[in-house]
Amino acid sequence: MTSVERSARTTVAVIGLGSVGGVIAGLLAALDRYDVIACVRRPLDRLVVEHAEGTIDAPIRALTDPAAATQVDWVLLCTKTQDTEQAGAWLQRLCGPNTRVATLQNGIGHAERLAPLVGSATVIPTIVYYNGERLAPDRVRFRRAGQYELAVGDDEGGRAFVALLEGTSTRILVSPDFKTLVWRKLLLNAMANPVTALTLQRQAVFRRDDVKELCLDILEEAAAVARADGARFPDDEPEQLLATLLTYPPDAGTSMYFDRLAGRPLEIEALTGAVVAIGEQHGIATPINRVLLTLGRAVSEAPARITTTAAET
């Protein structure tokens, strides 16, 4: 490909090539119509995505130094929420007034969090539903985990994101009630992530009756906070969410589970921390979520790599 041909293509920079970023970077690279740039710590020249429909093995351009980056059409921010500020050097170089920044992160309030880091670029909050697992720096596993892989708001930015992924195997929900959707995802995360990380078990743990009972209590508290914040949930939202969780493969992990195994800090503040903090704003008590937050903070502040057996992995 000549330099003229490359410059005519839409440029997409993916910051964070973990379980989420690796999957979407591989899917976009396989289309061979974008100049996909991986913003990573270590160099790589290919990316492999394993999934049920087959294996993607696509060449990819990687940058390891923000100083080498230039403005792009799209930035897909796929770091953990607590690492957003560390991505600031990349964002400063990649973003211009015509750049769209899609946030593929857990939690809520990403547009507000990113505003100081992206200048006049347009921020597009997204919700990620798919299950990704990083197997190596250049290899990830992609599993579907429901009816959709991604969700966006029904606005210009959301529709542009849908167009960007046209031709990939991802199913994207476009909704006018993004607030309810983002809270629904947060509730699933604030329940599933801490439980798997603290028990060091994959999603098979949710088949236990006592764990199901605990999960319903966690969800009841969080749903009350979400409703106070404007989410439109039915009365049986906790039961529906738990039923959804039980449709996921029992051997699937969560991002926080994998972070604990690897000895990385946990994303506890963006998930459980958000439930507790917003509960305080609305005067809603969240004692069970507060216990999870305390335990999650303790683990996160003193991370240690966990050695697993073959049966556990």
How would you sum up this structure, described in words?
The protein is an alpha/beta fold and 313 residues long. It has two domains: 174 residues, NAD(P)-binding Rossmann-like Domain (Rossmann fold); 123 residues, N-(1-d-carboxylethyl)-l-norvaline Dehydrogenase, domain 2. The protein contains eleven helices and twelve strands. It has an eight-stranded mixed beta sheet with strand order 5-2-1-6-7-8-11-12, with helices on both faces. It is globular.
Write the layout of secondary structure elements.
Blueprint: H1 3-8, E1 10-15, H2 19-31, E2 34-39, E3 46-51, E4 54-59, E5 61-63, E6 74-77, H3 88-94, E7 100-103, H4 110-118, E8 122-128, E9 131-136, E10 139-143, E11 150-153, H5 156-164, E12 172-175, H6 178-199, H7 209-228, H8 237-245, H9 255-262, H10 269-281, H11 287-301
Parallel strand pairs: 1-2, 1-6, 2-5, 3-10, 6-7, 7-8, 11-12
Antiparallel strand pairs: 3-4, 8-11, 9-10
N-C termini distance: 41 Å
Number of domains: 2
Mean pLDDT across the residues is 92
- Flag low-confidence runs: 1-6, 309-313
CATH superfamily of the largest domain: NAD(P)-binding Rossmann-like Domain
- Strand-and-helix sequence, N→C? HEHEEEEEHEHEEEEHEHHHHHH
Structural class: alpha/beta
What does the largest sheet look like?
8 strands, mixed
Arrangement of strands in the largest sheet: 5-2-1-6-7-8-11-12
Number of strands: 12
Can you give the helix content as a percent range? 40-55%
CATH class of the largest domain: Alpha Beta
CATH architecture of the largest domain: 3-Layer(aba) Sandwich
**Compute the gyration radius: what is it?**
19 Å
Proportion of residues in β-strands: 15-25%
